[in-house]
Design goal:
By secondary structure, the protein is an alpha+beta fold. The protein is built from 22 helices and 17 strands. The chain folds into three domains: 157 residues, Roll (Ubiquitin-like (UB roll)); 367 residues, Creatine Kinase, Chain A, domain 2, CATH 3.30.590; 126 residues, Four Helix Bundle (Hemerythrin (Met), subunit A), CATH 1.20.120.1560. Helices cover 47% and strands 13% of the residues. A hairpin with a 2-residue loop joins strand 5 and strand 6. The longest helix has 54 residues. Bound molecules: adenosine-5'-diphosphate and magnesium ion. It comes from Pseudolactococcus carnosus. This is Glutamine synthetase type III.
């Protein structure tokens, strides 16, 4: 019998939730804590001590032996340093446990080994992690035992942000302030805060662990660097939303339970387009919480996969020839009184506040299209953007027919008087009720699509943190709101000025609106005509961080200082160079030690066969042909291998930073493709028994 799962009972059982706090903390302490959050003030140490002590008792009751500050350095993954609750042994040899307010609030990991883009030299090792009091602490149970985890932001000794969370929290403050300013002009006096709500849909692949272990490329780089296409790919569309295999289903069951326990409202799961590809999405939360939760989701997917003798691949492009994985970042703005600024209502043409918000977002996205593209730049994502499966590298906005029509009315007449209605869907059967339709169809190819009451940014890579896109969205939209507020504050006729602004923004930025097929070649041409940037590679995209507009934007809003921004740019180049270098070295290793020797052995057996067949007086021409073909490909492989070694060597001597990154992008990457081509052909000819690693078919169809 399958054991029953009671969701409300297990949900957040491992989280030090607000309810737990209220129950455990003295009233005055709880109040003090809430006040510090509401007013954005520091928590005093005395209060922190009481909270820490309660957290310790609670965590130890859950089995915790250690605590750790969780932070998100610029590597994109989550880092943590664990300390046990143990104190120094007393004279009698006994120990007790302790956890102070200071340990809760502040950590001091030796930060010298994390990328800082030159913000800190190695001997200045000090870095501080600071508790994000708006993201709950929780315990994690794994092979290491039970650990209390504290979400934190990470700073250098000089107070520069070394992570994703610090600028994210700053950008959330900025968008809150700007939204409130705009809302006040519209007569809203009740809302005090506005928070970006974010929901991340996460794609991933699952493969068998034993097969994974036989592929050095998967082990070292997370993706296959060689591999001929399997006879079957995703052409039948039979995997998408298809029945979930039992092994995967039991994995998903575990994942959900694990996520629910740590308070992540895991909601949707299904098979994705590619074989062995799946998706999971929790219900949205405030941006910082959603970012933290997405990191936990990724870690949990990996951990639980191992328990099912599988490996979870989060790389953006584990397999050539079938879809890669991305992450959809759903984003909206919600007041503390529960109003979603992106809710159009039934008659959007009458909802002036919504239309101005929409027009301002359109303006922001057009003005900073390159920056938004950059926020999704990740080495693995270069394989997806524009590759007929993910939105192209060109940013455009999809509004849907209803809103596009309203925007067009504004462009043509300066106002809007009607909204297209969705109407009914007639099922044509008495057994099925007719249903009301949305006013707008979906568009799967748009990188930035309006989907009812939120925008969905679909460019983000599956492995990447969703912090960057949200930092960018919050900040660029804040600027657009402020521009509008400035004009409105001066207006003598408020309503007329709102209409004027909507028309003005719509006219000036309509080039970014595109409702057609974003995957088509025609769009690439059309976008170029419209003057929209098409930043194909991560190196092109990263250069955006040098533009005056971008530097000023982040500086003006205090989200990233020019120094912090420069550091981020450097980290991106460095990281890209390192990733491609590892891939190139892995290819060289696999080709030299596994593939070439296997093929040589195979040619020997073919040659022996030719001789034997001839000696037996038969025709050996077929065997000889194959031998010839294999030998030619082997030769091509050897020369491509020599070339890849040479350019990899050259790359390491290039000046670090942009120059080196560009060399990897333009030269090394091509040499890798050139090596892959003959090897993949060989895989199709050589005896499967002789091939030194599992094939695409083995990996994708035998999970
Ligand atoms: P889709 O429309 O893409 O099929 P869903 O409606 O299920 O998907 O939502 C996808 C993600 O968007 C989920 O994480 C969901 O919680 C989140 N989401 C839904 N509404 C909002 C909103 N107003 N703001 C931010 N995220 C949202
Ligand atoms: Mg979606």
């Amino acid at each position: 019998m399958m054991e029953k799962v009671n969701i409300p009972e297990i949900f957040a059982e491992d989280v030090f939730t607000d309810a737990v706090m209220q129950e455990r903390l003295p009233k005055s302490v709880y109040k003090q804590f809430k006040k510090s959050i509401d007013e954005g003030r520091d928590l005093d140490l005395a209060t922190a001590d009481v909270i820490a002590n309660e957290i310790r008792t609670w965590a130890i009751a859950k089995g915790a032996t250690h605590f750790a500050h969780l932070f998100q350095p610029l590597t994109g993954v989550t880092a943590e340093k664990q300390d046990s609750f143990i104190t120094a042994p007393k004279a009698d040899g006994s120990v007790v446990t302790a956890f102070s307010g200071k340990e809760l609030i502040k950590g001091e990991p030796d930060g010298s080994s994390f990328p800082s883009g030159g913000l800190r030299v190695t001997f200045e090792a000090r870095g501080y992690t600071v508790w994000d009091t708006t993201s709950s602490v929780f315990v994690r149970h794994d092979a290491a035992g039970t650990t209390l985890l504290i979400p934190t932001a990470f700073y250098s000794y000089n107070g520069e942000a070394l992570d994703q969370k610090a600028p994210l929290l700053r950008s959330m403050q900025v968008i809150s302030d700007s939204s409130i300013k705009l809302l006040r002009l519209f007569g809203n006096t009740s809302a005090k805060k506005v928070a970006p709500s974010v929901g991340a849909e996460q794609e991933y692949f699952l493969v068998d662990a034993a097969k994974f272990e036989q592929r050095k490329d998967l082990i070292y780089t997370g993706r296959t660097l060689f591999g001929a296409a399997a006879p079957k790919g995703q052409e039948l569309d039979d995997h998408y939303f298809g029945t979930i295999r039992q092994r995967v289903a039991s994995f998903m069951k575990n994942i959900n339970e694990e996520l629910w326990k740590v308070g992540i409202p895991s909601k949707t799961q299904h098979n994705e387009v590619a074989p062995a590809q799946h998706e999971i999405a929790p219900i949205y939360a405030n941006a910082n919480v959603a970012v933290d939760q997405n990191q936990v989701v990724m870690q949990t997917l990996k951990r639980i996969a191992c328990q099912h003798d599988m490996k979870c691949l989060l790389h953006e492009k584990p397999f050539a020839g079938v879809n890669g994985s991305g992450k959809h970042n759903n984003w909206s703005l919600v007041t503390d009184t529960g109003e979603n600024l992106l809710e159009p209502g039934d008659t959007p043409h009458e909802n002036k506040q919504f239309l101005l918000v929409l027009a301002a977002i359109i303006k922001a996205v057009d003005k900073y299209a390159g920056l938004l593209r950059e926020s999704a730049a990740d080495p693995g994502n270069d394989h997806r953007l524009g590759a007929n499966e993910a939105p192209p590298a060109i940013i455009s906005v999809f509004l849907g027919s209803q809103l596009e029509d309203i925007i067009n009315q504004y462009i043509e007449t300066g106002s809007a008087s009607t909204s297209i209605e969705g109407g009914f869907l007639t099922t044509g059967s008495a057994a099925l009720k007719d249903i009301t339709k949305d006013a707008t169809d979906r568009n799967r190819t748009s990188p930035f699509a309006f989907t009812g009451n939120k925008f969905e940014f679909r460019m983000v890579g599956s492995r990447d943190s969703i912090a960057s896109p949200n930092i960018v969205l919050n900040t660029i939209v804040a600027e657009a709101f402020d521009d509008a507020s400035e004009r409105l504050a001066k207006a003598t006729d408020f309503d007329a000025e709102v209409d004027a602004l909507i028309s003005e923004y719509a006219k000036a930025h309509s080039r970014i609106i595109f409702n057609g097929d974003g995957y088509s070649d025609e769009w690439v041409v059309e976008a170029e005509k419209r003057g929209l940037p098409n930043l194909k590679s991560i190196v092109d995209a990263t250069e955006v961080l040098e533009s005056e507009d971008v530097i000023n934007l982040f500086d003006k809003y205090g989200v990233l200082t020019p120094t912090e921004l420069k550091a981020r740019e450097e980290v991106k180049y460095e990281n890209y160079a390192k990733v491609i270098n590892i891939e190139a070295l892995t290819m060289i290793d696999m080709a030299t030690k596994q593939i070439v020797p296997a093929v040589i052995k195979y040619t020997k057996s073919l040659a022996d066969t030719v001789i034997a067949v001839k000696a037996a007086g038969s025709d050996a021409s077929v065997q000889a042909d194959i031998l010839g073909e294999v030998s030619d490909l082997l030769k091509a492989t050897k020369s491509a291998l020599t070339e890849l070694k040479a350019v990899s060597e050259q790359a390491t001597n290039k000046e670090e930073g942009k120059v080196q990154a560009r060399f990897y992008n333009e030269v090394v990457f091509k040499a890798m493709d050139a090596l892959r081509a003959p090897v993949d052909k060989l895989e199709m000819i050589v005896d499967k028994e002789a091939w030194p690693m599992p094939s695409y078919g083995d990996l994708m169809f035998e999970v």
